[in-house]
Amino acid sequence: MDKVKFELEIPIRASPSMLYQYISSPSNLQEWFADKVNSRGEIFTFIWEGVEEKAELITKKSEDKIRFKWLESKDDESYFEIKIQVDALTKDVSLIVTDFADDEDEVEESKQLWENQIDELKHTIGA
Fold first, then answer.
1. How many CA atoms are closer than 13 Å to the CA of 103, on its beta-carbon side?
2. The CA-based dihedral angle spanning residues 32, 36, 39, 43, taken in that order and rounded to the nearest 10 degrees
3. 54-59 mean pLDDT
4. Which of the four, 52, 81, 83, 118, has the lowest number of CB atoms within 10 Å?
5. Can you tell me the mean pLDDT for 113-121?
6. CATH architecture, domain defined by 4-125
7. Structural domain boundaries of the chain?
8. How far apart are CA 35 and CA 90, in angstroms?
């Protein structure tokens, strides 16, 4: 069964360089994304309430984006990506989150989860 791709754009008041630190380093991801984050090479281990999920770092572009692929979904095209977008005119900064839900019914729930995580990030960095 194909997963459903979705995208979220969330405005955030922070500099792209600071944001990049929070989306790319295990210690900073641990502050807002998961309870604990470890990395060994390209493999990141995310832990939520004692449950481990492993993801491979696919793309890392400084001050631009980071993309992970869950190891458990290696047989499909899914991934999750956090991209920093800066409006050329207004210089407003947004995070563009691309992710996949298992089916259409889970898209809203997945978006809500991301919004909650980004709210936690905003709180962490004081944005």
1. 2
2. -90
3. 96
4. 52
5. 95
6. 2-Layer Sandwich (3.30)
7. 4-125
8. 35
Burial of 7 (0-12, 13-18, 19+ CB in 10 A): exposed
Amino acid sitting at position 42? E
pLDDT at 127 (0 to 100): 78
Considering the entire predicted model, what is its pTM?
0.92
d(CA 72, CA 89): 41
Q: How many residues does the chain have?
A: 127
**Best CA proximity match to 90, nearest among 9, 17, 11:** 11
Alpha helix (H) residue ranges in the chain:
16-24, 26-32, 107-125
95, pLDDT greater than 70:
yes
